[in-house]
Design goal:
Blueprint (H helix, E strand, L loop, with lengths): L1 H16 L10 E6 L4 E2 L2 E2 L9 E2 L8 E6 L5 E5 L10 E4 L10 E10 L7 E5 L15 E4 L7 E4 L3 E2 L8 E9 L3 E6 L2 E7 L11 E4 L7 E9 L5 H15 L9 E2 L6 E3 L9 E9 L4 E3 L1 E3 L7 E4 L21 E7 L8 E2 L10 E3 L4 E6 L4 E7 L7 E8 L9 E4 L1 E2 L4 E7 L4 E8 L13 E4 L1 H15 L1 E10 L2 E11 L15 E3 L3 E8 L5 E18 L3 E2 L2 E11 L2 E3 L2 E4 L10 E4 L2 E4 L13 E19 L6 E7 L2 E4 L11 E7 L4 E2 L4 E9 L5 E6 L6 E3 L16 E3 L2 E9 L2 E11 L5 E5 L2 E4 L4 E4 L12 E6 L9 E7 L9 E10 L5 E9 L5 E8 L2 E4 L8 E9 L2 E10 L12 E3 L1 E4 L11 E3 L3 E3 L21 E4 L17 E4 L8 E3 L13 E3 L5
Parallel strand pairs: 50-60, 72-73, 74-75
Antiparallel strand pairs: 1-17, 2-3, 3-4, 5-6, 6-17, 7-16, 8-13, 8-17, 9-10, 9-16, 10-11, 11-12, 13-14, 14-15, 18-19, 20-21, 20-24, 22-23, 23-28, 24-27, 25-26, 26-33, 27-33, 28-32, 29-30, 29-33, 31-32, 34-48, 35-36, 36-39, 37-38, 38-47, 39-46, 39-47, 39-48, 40-41, 41-42, 41-45, 41-46, 43-46, ...
């Protein structure tokens, strides 16, 4: 008796607290699930009644169909095709599955392979232990022989509405013996005739699958109750099966959780969105744990999942479940199948390039669903780049609109990651381009070190003007390579400067390429990749020389179609120092470079659409026929593969990176903070970005050209703080330079903290979008070997005090090498301003090879220079030509430099500069230079403060008129104001205290 009591208690506990379909457990007699307990010879019954369906004959056994979107990523059991030889079935012996025959409710997930003739799915009142096909049809759920594609409860005439071939449908029949049969197909209710006792043998065994009428079907789940369940219970079981298998119940009809009260889909919220309903769910009482889902209806394009995986089985161990019980995230759409796109709200479409599809989904959320992933198949739509999901509170996308960037995968399927904080509406938009380049994926940013690559290529690269087949890393699609990088002078080969010497690495980072000509020919420099990438980099030397300005046109290509970049200034614009202007993708030199930071001649280039090739067309805006040296320097390239941004409650992210990484300890790099506001309204943030020990910010280097008008940061040493930054919708970048503070090779981890002031939420910047969470941004510093240029003194002098047009002067370049050792392999450059041309030169001690013939040229460049210890000089006779014109009356500035170690990555710090020599215009104050050379006269008049005069003084002073000398007294002339000088006469010597002359 005690044992009996324990057994009864266990049974009651199971019935009260155990799992059951839809939470309906009373008189549950059959619960077969292909995803749990199926094998070809036995299908486990989860009802607790022990009604396992079995098959001992190997030729008649069904087999498992692996999960697929057809069955909403759940498995199914294949019960054979239409022929009797392939008929498969399983049985329950006589005496089951029911203990009485008073009532019956059966619900099945069935996908029919043939809708012509009878095809039996489950029947009662018969069984077998052999392989022959037997009959169990009192009653049997079968395909309707009337060829109307419905399901039929034979031998009654009760049937459902029609079905679709090879599509999973939810079939249910419910009745009490002697009463009317109620039937349903995907929630569409029908009522039929009375079922009589003679047709109802529920205790006489059962056959699942083929009888004499073969099944020709796949069965995913079977549920049977030994009673006619209520309408409310039926709705709960239907809701469970519909969510699990991606079936849309007939609308209007709410989806009800197993607790009987939670509405997971409210069909009355907006009746326009009751099509193609599906979703993710966790309902423990009904053993529902749907972690990936799609609507199984044809033409639907959306799949959702708890992880970024849209192919694996729902039961895959890599998938995660919702945390809390009774959590649902449901989707239904407006069934708009038009392929035409429409406009998006202007607030997120400043350039008018964005469109959206017309299909819209309603999203209903119950409890915290957390971060979820979505995949939309947009291959049939014209939008093909920069795809995004729109999320808003209303179906017209006007209220609280945010955009979620997507990642395009092969076949036009786009992936999104988002946290739904409330009921919402979503749709998908993007841009339309002529080419169809799918950006590489994986989320990594790869570095193409342009200057280093040309250094590694050596002489062969400089000779052919081409480098090729450079592996940068591995994306999801495979190895990312630079197919080739080329400097193309074929339009006029004579314009190439110093063939075999360029392109080459410049200042440890850049690649420099040059032309020297007086033509309007176009030089083209381009790089090609084997995958489509988004790219960002800098170009420099956008300035003028001899009033002839560089004209750089930057273009990308996707499938041969032009893609235009976003171009901005790399340094805050200064009206007197910035050397170029920007007009779209055209950069025009407007003034010469005057020795300020190179960033005044530098532009940021950003391709925010995928490209396969990037080209820079280099022309010269010529205002005269002089041969001029024009250069292009091209910095390291950051090549981005797509990744989904880490979702945040404020829909804001900061991505931090560096223009040059790795950077040598002797050089600077620019920190990039790419700020993304995916809201449709401004957000205000504050940023704190403190560097680790060993790095420091460069003063006066902050550049907010893309967010002008905002407060300026305070930054010094390691500390950076920027408060109350207003960020409009979209992507915006701020820049600030960083430098190593010691000569140590190491990797520093950097990361910014920012607060969204609208909400008070705090976040960190992200340095690696390929890794979940917010990662630090590493900066690799390489140890550099600097040259002590204090041991080299460069002096430039001229033999006159002022100049006039067409005058010949002699510049002397003096190099003093105090290092104690000769210098070899150096480069010397002198670029003459104005109209100066070189007539002759003499090397005294120093040796080198001219890059071009200096005679008649405006440049004096020596390569492979050897500088002996001590003093060496270069005397250069120059014709000033028309250097002094209406645009230049102040003077000519010139300077020469020597790169002591040109291939050293620290060449910028190993470059010695001479003084900047100013040769003013002789403007009437002095019109004749003092005579030099062999004296042709003597000085006859002298004034001296010395007691003991030199012998023959002042006659020993050649070519003078008046000699003045003093040991410790200065020469002071008469001083007076301008209004006192009433009658100035020739020869008068007086200092005007008003005009300071």
């Amino acid at each position: 008796m005690k044992k009996l009591f324990i057994f009864i208690s266990f049974t009651l506990c199971y019935m009260l607290w155990g799992q059951s379909p839809g939470g309906v457990n009373a008189n549950l007699r059959i619960w077969l699930k292909a995803n749990d307990g199926f094998s070809s010879n036995s299908w486990k019954d989860h009802s607790g009644s022990g009604n396992n369906f079995t098959q001992s004959n190997s030729t008649r056994r069904p087999f498992l169909i692996l999960p697929s979107p057809k069955h909403n990523f759940n498995p199914s059991a294949d019960f054979g095709a239409s022929s009797a030889t392939d008929a498969r079935f399983m049985v329950v012996p006589n005496g089951g599955p029911y203990t009485n025959k008073s009532a019956n409710t059966v619900l099945m997930m069935v996908s029919a392979k043939d809708l012509v003739g009878f095809h039996d799915y489950i029947g009662f009142g018969g069984t077998t232990t052999g392989s022959s096909l037997s009959q169990a049809n009192l009653p049997v759920i079968t395909n309707n022989n009337n060829n109307n594609t419905s399901a039929l409860l034979y031998p009654t005439a009760a049937s459902t509405v029609g079905r679709t071939l090879n599509k999973n449908h939810l079939i249910d029949f419910s009745y009490s013996e002697g009463g009317s049969v109620r039937s349903g197909l995907d929630g569409i209710n029908s009522s039929g005739p009375i079922i009589r006792a003679a047709s109802n043998r529920l205790t006489g065994g059962a056959i699942l699958g083929s009888q004499r009428e073969v099944a020709a079907t796949d069965i995913s789940e079977v549920i049977g109750f030994q009673r006619d369940i209520t309408l409310g219970e039926r709705n709960r079981v239907r809701s469970y099966l519909a969510i699990k298998y991606g079936v849309t119940l007939a609308q209007p009809q709410n989806y009800i959780a197993s607790d009987g009260t939670t509405i997971s889909w409210n069909s009355n919220r907006n009746s326009s969105f009751n099509s193609n309903i599906f979703g993710l769910a966790k309902d423990d009482k009904t053993a529902l744990d749907q972690r990936v889902s799609n609507s199984i209806n044809s033409g639907t394009i959306l799949t959702v999942a708890t992880v970024n995986d849209f192919t694996s089985a729902n039961s895959s161990g890599s998938r995660t479940s919702f945390t809390a019980d009774n959590t649902f995230l449901m989707f239904g759409d407006n069934n708009n199948t038009s392929r035409n796109v429409t406009d998006v709200p202007a607030v997120i479409n400043p350039n008018g390039e964005r469109k959206r599809i017309q299909r819209v989904w309603q999203v209903e959320k119950t409890n915290n669903s957390g971060s979820v992933w979505l995949q939309a198949d947009l291959s049939a739509y014209s939008i093909n780049t920069n795809i995004f999901m729109m999320v808003a509170d209303d179906a017209s996308f006007q209220n609280n609109l945010v955009i979620v960037p997507g990642v395009i995968n092969a076949g036009g399927k786009v992936v999104f990651n988002h946290i739904f904080s409330k009921n919402s509406y979503i749709t998908f938009g993007g841009e339309i381009t002529e080419g169809n380049c799918v950006q590489c994926t994986g989320g990594k940013t790869y570095r193409f070190r342009t200057g280093y690559a040309w250094l590694q290529a050596g002489q062969s690269g400089r000779t052919s003007n081409e480098i090729s087949n450079i592996l940068l890393g591995n994306t999801t699609e495979g190895g990312l390579r630079v197919v080739k990088m080329v400097s193309d002078y074929t339009e006029n080969p004579s314009m190439e400067y110093a063939p075999r010497a360029y392109p080459r690495m410049y200042r440890g980072t850049w690649v420099i390429t040059r032309r020297y000509d007086n033509t309007k020919a176009v030089a083209r420099h381009f790089v090609e990749f084997n995958q489509s990438v988004k790219a960002r980099f800098q170009i420099s030397n956008i300035n003028t020389y001899l009033r002839n300005g560089n004209l750089f046109t930057v273009k990308g290509y996707c499938d041969g179609k032009v893609v235009y970049p976003k171009v901005t200034y790399a340094y805050p614009v200064n009206d007197t120092r910035t050397t170029f202007s920007i007009d779209g993708n055209l950069l025009t030199g407007i003034r010469p470079f005057r020795g300020f930071t190179y960033l005044y001649s530098t532009a940021n280039i950003v391709f925010d659409r995928p490209v396969q090739k990037i080209e820079i067309e280099c022309k010269v805006n010529r205002v005269n026929a002089r041969k001029t040296l024009r250069s292009l320097t091209w910095g390291d390239m950051a090549l981005e593969c797509a990744a989904n941004p880490e979702p945040t409650a404020d829909h804001m992210n900061i991505y931090q990176s560096f223009t040059t990484n790795p950077v040598y300890s002797c050089n600077e790099t620019t920190m990039i903070m790419r700020i993304i506001n995916n809201n449709s309204a401004n957000r205000k943030i504050s940023i704190s970005n403190n560097l680790p020990e060993g790095l420091a910010y460069v003063p006066d280097s902050y550049n907010d050209v893309e967010l002008s008008g905002n407060p300026q940061p305070t930054y010094a040493g390691k500390v950076f703080s920027l408060n109350n930054l207003v960020v409009p919708p979209g992507t915006h970048t701020v820049y600030v330079d960083v430098k190593p503070t010691n000569n140590t090779g190491t990797t520093y981890q950097t990361q910014a903290d920012f607060t969204v002031l609208n909400t008070g939420n705090n976040y960190k910047s992200d340095g690696d979008a390929s890794v979940p969470g917010f990662q630090t941004s590493p900066l690799e510093v390489l140890k550099g070997q600097e040259v002590d240029i204090s041991k080299y003194k460069l002096t430039k002098s001229v033999n006159v005090s002022c100049g006039v047009n067409n005058q010949k002067v002699t510049y002397r370049l003096t190099i003093e090498n105090n290092s104690g050792a000769p210098v070899t392999g150096a480069n010397l450059e002198e670029n003459l301003e104005g109209g100066q041309t070189i007539e002759s030169y003499i090397l005294n001690g120093i040796t080198g090879t001219p890059a071009v013939n200096p005679v008649g040229a405006t440049i004096f460049h020596l390569n492979d220079v050897t500088i002996p210890v001590g003093i060496s000089t270069i005397d250069m006779v120059v014709n000033l030509q028309d250097s002094y014109d209406n645009n230049n009356t102040s003077g000519i500035v010139s300077q020469f430099i020597i790169e002591i170690d040109s291939d050293n990555p620290c060449s910028s710090s190993s470059t010695a500069y001479s003084n900047a020599l100013l040769l003013p215009l002789c403007n009437g104050i002095c019109t004749k230079d003092p005579a030099s050379g062999t004296p042709n006269g003597i000085t006859r008049m002298g004034i001296s403060g010395h007691t003991n005069l030199q012998q023959n003084w002042p006659a020993n002073v050649p070519n003078g008129f008046l000699a003045l000398e003093s040991k410790n007294k200065g020469f002071v002339i008469t001083r007076t104001a301008s209004d006192k000088i009433v009658s100035p006469v020739e020869g008068m010597l007086i200092f005007d205290t008003t005009d300071k002359l």
